[in-house]
Amino acid sequence: MATAVVIAAGVTGFLVLGGDKDDAASPEPTASAPTRTSGPTPTGGDDGRRGDEPKPVVPGWKVVVNPKRGIAFDVPAHWQRKDPDWASYVSDNKDPEDTPLVGFLAPAVLEEQWCTSDEDKNGTTENTPIAAAGSRGENGAKNTEEAARHNVSQWIYGGYAQPDRSKVKPGAVESFTTASGITGSVATATSVGVGKKGKCDTDGKGTAFAFKDSKGDFVSWTFHGVKGVKEEVPDATVRKILSTVRLTGGSARP
């Protein structure tokens, strides 16, 4: 396993050299939240994605591909794509094992160093991005509604609201069909009243779309980002990104 870096307050990223840690988060809710670790920024990212990758469906945007899951989506051109083997996750601040609550693979990040701080005064800075989006398998999910609801709630709790789950406010779960014809369930959640204990503390918002891949396995796409600041990604942009989610091989089952 390569070096880990923080890409958000409470959000950890690392290169996966084997294993399946993007799917390793427990399918059941836990009562805790994320560990803040950090290290040197890895090389890679946008420069590593070329060749026969799919073309974006939104003119002027760029495509993000998770080759392991066969999922693609588009993001605006100023977002940074991480390596296909880059995983990001949130974990419990109280968990010494840094066990993921939820994570995703091959993400795209908007302004990775939007806010930088050293809250614990240990000499190591942590970076908070404006937003990130990625995809993952949903091992253990019973249906798309459950997968979407649990996924987005874990991201908001782990990345923004912990240690107080009461600050996570789930939105409605609704049916959604992407432009490519994938039908699944979309769930949203926000954090409310987090407060600004540290320089980079802010409320967050998230959107998760769960569906079945061409093999009939449950998978998902998720967005999370800061909320209530001028740099916040508009909901219309989040929905536009979501609408581009597609499979890179085969076709989705309803």
From TrEMBL:
Residues 54-248 form the DUF8017 domain. Pfam families: DUF8017 (PF26056). Residues 46-55 have a biased composition (Basic and acidic residues). Residues 26-44 have a biased composition (Low complexity). This is DUF8017 domain-containing protein. The lineage of its organism: Bacteria, Bacillati, Actinomycetota, Actinomycetes, Kitasatosporales. Residues 17-60, 118-140 are annotated as: Disordered. It comes from Streptomyces syringium.
